[in-house]
Structure formats: C-alpha cells, structure tokens
Amino acid sequence: MPFALTYPLLSIHLLGEKINASVWQGVWKMATQGFSYTAFLIFICAVFMPIAFALLVILLRLAQMVKAKPRNLLISLGYIKPWVMFDVYLVALGVTMFKVKEYATLELDIYLIAFIFTALLTTLLFIKINPAEVWNDFYPQSKAVNDITKAEDLRYCHYCQYSFLNPLTDNKGKEICPRCYSQIDIPSAIKLQRTWALLLAGIIMLFPANLLPISVIYVNGAPSADTLMSGVLSFIDMGSYFIAFVVFTASIFVPVSKVLIILYLLICVHFKLKHSIRWQMRLLHVVHFVGRWSMLDLFVLALMMSLVTRGQIIDFSVGTAALYFGAAVFLTMIAAEQFDSRLIWEIYDRQHKTHNTH
C-alpha cells in the first residue's frame, strides 16, 4: 500500500521533462492549487479509507488473538467498507492513460504493479470480510434466544443483525442494542426524512455538476473547458468508444439513475404502491453497488492535475463543477445507506396478509 499510494504510477514526457503521477501527488497538487474541498473528497476515498480499512483488519485480528471485545472497531468496519475505492481508482488510471495520450508520450511505472495488487487484495478482503459474521465471532448469539419459541418475544437490531430479549437504554431513555449500542426501532418518518433530505441535496448538487465545466485545459493560454457530457463527446471524437462508454456510465448514467431509483422507492413507500418486491429489492442492491463508481471522474481529475500542469504552454485545471459533483456522489451514497428496505417489505407484508384473508 505505501508503494501504491506514494510512488509514481504513470509518467509522461512533456516539453522535454519527465512528469510523474501518484495517488498522493494528485491529491496534494489539487489541494495546493485552490481546490482543497475537492481534494479532501478524493483523499477520503483514495487514501484515508483504504489505509483505515487495512489497519482495521489488522486490529480486529489482534483483538481476536488477545480475546478482546472491539465494539468500536466493528462499528467502524460497517462505516468504512463502502468508501474504499481502489477498484474505481484503477479504472480511473485507464481512463487517464487515454486522456493524456493526445498531449504527451505515456509511460507506465513499475509501481503500477503494486497498485494493481493492492486493488486486487483489497477486493479479496471485501469478499472475505462479512461484517455480520465478524460481529458473531466476537459477540456470539445468546443461548437464551435459541430456546425462545415465541417470535414476538424477540427484539432485533438491524445494524449488527443481533437477536435479543431485553434491550438496554441510553442516557436519553431510548432503547439500544446490547451488542452494538445502536438505537433500535427508529420511527419510519425519521428514516424517510433523512433519506429525502440527503437525496434532495444531492439532486440540487447535480445541476451545477452537469452544467458547469468540470475541467479546463489551457493550450498556449487559450482555455478549453469541458463539462461532463462534452468530456464524453471528446472521447467519441478520438475514437475511444469504450472509454467514452465507461465515463458516460460512471459520470452521467449512474448518478442520474441512482437518484431516479431512490425517488421511485421513496414514492412506493409514501403512496403504498404494490409493485414486485423482487424488482424493488434488486434496484436497491444495484444502487448500493454502483454508487461508488461515480467517483471515477474525480480520480481522473486528480491524476490529470499531477500530469498536465506545465505553466504557459499547457496547463490543466479543475473546473467549478468538480466539487458539486463530488458532493452529489457523497450525498446520494449516504441517502442510499439511510433508506430502510423494511419500509418496502411492510407494504409487501400488508399486501400478502390481505391476499391471504381474501
């Protein structure tokens, strides 16, 4: 991971000078050239969260060896896992290669192998580590629960998936899970308010993200600004149809479709629409899976910042749309996490009971 994050992954020869690009260098250059908020969003997903995830796995193993009860580490695991985006960054490297070919000769550095291996190993960690199973390893299910025959006597925590009989109470008198201490039975209205607030904020951010320029290239002092859509069209003009498809999918199709799917699910909940539960749950799973891939464009911007910044003759700058786009990605990802799938199942259960009664 140190080699993958700090050492050069790509190099170009521009105006007789070799310029290197690394993950950290792209974030640092963006931050020092007046785009600190956008750089912070990239830093969270490409540097901080991957390191935190790796350290978390090591600490959990140490806790297992000394037979400790790492409640806070397990809670952190659930929050950190969706934000580790090495696989997205790997695709961003490929897009950047095609983008810089028109300006200079491109070379791949040996440390790119380290990044590819880190991305693959992180993906394997994702597959191997199931937060629900890790919770059960450290905090096994109570034997008393297994002897209960009446389901109505049981309580259930939807965060750590723990079944129990008697909840604890916090200092505000609210019932909490005895295993992870998260609040149970949060009113549906509160969950919907959170989802609506985050989604509407994300929708607002998408307008300037798509209308304003996301990048500006200066050639001999003449600026050439690109919006999200014009960037896709430039790849089509270059004949890079597959890259254009990847960028269009990650930058335009995924953010818009994610918003439309969450809107559809919220409308189903509010108006008690009785549609196929299988179809609705598949849509929700799709939203959770594809949401993170929208960060692709910001990762490409960070790499371009470190590669193409050479003063008067050729220069690359981040556009004003980048921050709005990053905010929209973050807000819609959190909105999807806040949406409670039980609200859909309640409609299905009512429909099923009504059907059985008739």
TrEMBL record:
UniProt lineage: Bacteria, Pseudomonadati, Pseudomonadota, Gammaproteobacteria, Pasteurellales
Record-stated family: Belongs to the PqiA family.
Ranges in coiled-coil conformation: none
NCBIfam families: pqiA_fam (TIGR00155)
Keyword Transport annotated: no
UniProt main location, coarse: membrane
Originating gene: pqiA
Any single GO CC term annotated in Swiss-Prot or TrEMBL for this entry: plasma membrane
Positions of transmembrane segments: 37-60, 72-98, 110-127, 196-218, 238-271, 283-307, 313-336
Protein name: Paraquat-inducible protein A
Locations listed in the record: Cell inner membrane
Entry keyword Iron: no
Protein keywords: Cell inner membrane, Cell membrane, Membrane, Transmembrane, Transmembrane helix
Membrane topology recorded in Swiss-Prot or TrEMBL: Multi-pass membrane protein
